[in-house]
Amino acid sequence: MSEQRIAMVTGGARGIGAAIADALERDGHKVVIVDVDEAKLAEVSQATGRPGYRMDISDFDDVTEVVGRIESEVGPISILVNNAGITRDGFMHKMKPENWQAVINVNLTGAFNTCRVIAPGMRERGHGRIINISSMNGQRGQFGQCNYAAAKAGLLGFTRSIAQELAGKGVTSNVVCPGFIKTDMTAAMPEDILKAEQAKIPVGRLGEPTDIADMVAFLARDETSFINGVTFSVNGGQYMD
Ligand code: NAP
Question: Which of 6, 40, 149, 189 is 20 to 30 A from 85 (CA-CA)?
Fold first, then answer.
């Protein structure tokens, strides 16, 4: 069994992030959740006892300040799960530049910001697990989601690069690409599109947040030190890379 570690999960107040927090806690880790949704954060923190911190991952100064507080109040972060993400869908030829930028800022720059601030401490301590949550749509592209697909594809190259840079100091980096998972993000999609997508999934169902959380918890273990720079598809076989 792994040593007890401190894990930080971005977007940890709901959806896949909340399931990841549950799974890491089940494996014995101390989990800190960060999110922009302050009300939800307070509610989940109270219900679970998990320390919750308001953090906007797209703002480097905010990340620096809040990580500093977490590390002095809770302890050094050894497991970083970059899960927070947003969508601002639209056709490329009609997309507002601010919707392009917002998605890049949160989904791609957000992961750079947290890694940039947290990885130096992991390197010094000789241990770390970075797990980035991308998407099947970052692997295959998606109609109406050029901003989201570009940011999520960017995470694949980002992860493979830092995997080469950090591994010599005991810090591994991997990326998980969920397919269609039942959360608020997919509940916002039109019913007919969801049904059509489900019909394309060989296992015959949409994914559950726990399907992703179990993969993340596995990658967070001390025993996975030889797994580095890998993209894990968790999509029921809908897209085989
Ligand atoms: P979700 O239910 O929308 O949860 C995402 C959480 O991240 C929300 O609590 C959100 O807060 C928070 N967040 C947004 N912007 C943030 C920021 N700047 N700083 C900190 N936190 C922020 O999403 P989900 O469905 O669980 O998805 C989790 C991850 O999996 C995302 O990266 C998503 O792209 C990826 N994914 C999901 C699916 C799927 O089918 N659901 C498929 C592939 C990949 P607010 O609510 O206040 O915005």
Answer: 6
Total domains in the chain come to 1
Is the CB of 58 within 6 Å of ligand 1? yes
- Smallest CA-to-CA distance from 166 within 131, 114, 220, 126 is with 126
Residue 88 in domain? yes
Structural domain harbouring 220:
6-178+209-232
**Domain membership flag for residue 185:** no
Distance (angstroms) between ligand 1 centre and the Cα of 161 equals 24
Q: Is residue 48 part of a domain?
A: yes
Residue 1 lies in a domain: no
Q: What is the full per-residue pLDDT of the chain (241 aa) written as tens digits?
A: 568 899 999 999 999 999 999 999 999 999 999 999 999 999 999 999 999 999 999 999 999 999 999 999 999 999 999 999 999 999 999 999 999 999 999 999 999 999 999 999 999 999 999 999 999 999 999 999 999 999 999 999 999 999 999 999 999 999 999 999 999 878 888 889 888 989 999 999 999 999 999 999 999 999 999 999 999 999 999 999 8
Catalytic residue IDs: 148
36 Cβ inside 6 Å of ligand 1: yes
Asked whether 44 lines ligand 1 (CB < 6 A), one says no
Measured from the Cα of 185, ligand 1's closest atom is 25
